[in-house]
Amino acid sequence: MNDLYSSQRAMRNMRKAAMQRGVVAILDVGSSKIVCLILRFDGTDKLTEGDGIGSLAGQTGFRVIGAATTRSRGVRFGEISAMSETERAIRTALQSAQKMAQIRVDHVIACFSGAEPRSYGLDGSVEIENTVVSEQDVARVLSSCDVPDFGPGREVLHAQPVNFALDHRSGLNDPRGQIGQQLNTDMHMLTVDAAAIQNLAHCVRRCDLELAGVASSAYVSGISALVEDEQELGAACIDMGGGATSVSIFMKKHMIFADAVRMGGDHVTSDISMGLQVPMTTAERIKTVNGGVVATGMDDRDMIDIGGDTGDWDHDRRQVSRAELIGIMRPRVEEILEDVRARLDAAGFDHLASQQIVLTGGGSQIPGLDGLASKILGQQVRLGRPLRVHGLPGATTGPGFSSAVGLCLFAAHPQDEWWDFEILENYQGRSFKRAIKWFRDNW
């Protein structure tokens, strides 16, 4: 276990210290862009005493005072591949955001989309000691969950109870203070590749910052792109980024499954670059301005100027029809959606009562994508945009910023803190203490 990451409690203490100071930075490390937002907390005392349990419990209390976006470098498939290049890109975004906010930040909360996430479902059950459920009873039932052997080189990123049941009553968000005999819980645990976490933490330290929290973009994108009813009734969030496509399923306002496909919008751009024999920058411009996945009769006559700087007059004045461009883009988009469909089928998404699917992320802005996704994923597909956050600039309100906005909400109200309890001093069970220590160190 990495010394820095093995204790997420230490990260949360850093986050609390940053909130007491009033300022914390948000860092979305993606394959195509790096987004840095600086948050100012106005009512720190109100944030730690929320009225509800859940990712959307009280979204007030902070505003965005600085924002910057820069082209990502050294990141492939959502993971750092060139440390020095990623460090320079993070420094560039951070300095621009600090200049806009006119303040220096020392603590940052980061999210990423790669690292091969894997989901596990755990359950536990205990008898209530004094009829009324206390924090100690909740700690005991969480510790009673059997932790699976997730293998070497993996880290627990999220471990959250998604449901409590007290006797015959299920679907409880917070059982504390209620009367019963037996307490049961269902927990969702998400593990990721440890090397990706360690590289991200090391890169943040090289930028003279303290890592005050880390989250999966699949989780934070769902927080911002799904409306409250979708999180409650059940929905899937598909975040189509540049190097990876994150998949998450929410139910009862909790994430119950997460996965990732190692393909994204950059792969579509690469196909255009190879198919038309143009540089990646030109391919990205063509995809953004003229791209699509559904061809019509007009597209055969709609010619696109490719352009170029080679000096060859004939080569630089080439044209291609939009139908040919769609013919290059559609197979890759279909491949990504088919892989997403396989992930949803493996998670049992078909058995949910509500099968709403929300597409978000920069790759979701391809014209006609929602119609194609309806044919492959299911009929209930819509394009999602992130929730509005106080002070967020208009340029950062598009689907490509869902994970950054969701990370703002996660920073203000991390769900993990509600279930972080101390070990019982008078309890004599050694295995109990070991289990509680595992949850305390890994949450």
Automatic annotation (TrEMBL):
Keyword Cell cycle: yes
Alphabetical list of InterPro entries matching this protein: ATPase_NBD, Cell_div_FtsA, FtsA/MreB, SHS2_FtsA
CDD domains with a match to the protein in the record: ASKHA_NBD_FtsA (cd24048)
Domain SHS2 stretches: 24-225
Transmembrane segments: none
GO CC annotation terms, alphabetical: cell division site; cytoplasmic side of plasma membrane
Name of the molecule in the record: Cell division protein FtsA
Organism expressing this protein natively: Planktotalea frisia
